[in-house]
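Field reference: sequence -> structure
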Amino acid sequence: MSQTDPIADMLTVIRNGISSEKESVDVPFSRIKEEILKILRDHGFIKTYRVVAQENNKKKIRTYLAYDVDGEPVINNLKRISRPGLRVYKKAQDIPLVRGGKGIAVISASQGIFDDEQARQKNVGGEVLCYVW
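Structure field:
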């Protein structure tokens, strides 16, 4: 199975895990996915994640999904913005507020992966990877 958009695949796995009320989901490992999950964890959208080694010398990331006290998922939606067929870049001052500041945008800049707030503070623009709210 070839992956043309591994970030979109990861977001879909998380979305499907939430809709079926799973405790955790597994995605193939990459550094960019780990950085995105770190941002989601820091904002409370997921509980945590863990890099797990498999028998065939490949790694996967086990992501533990977060639910509130009523059992409702913390993540309402994940939306892939920039994709291989249509890249979306924004300057720091043009990065939008997601859902009036209730969500986050994940930005890939030359200095690393940032949430929208960090990108504005550091005055760096870049590729808008996804919105999470």
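Note: The chain has three helices and eight strands.
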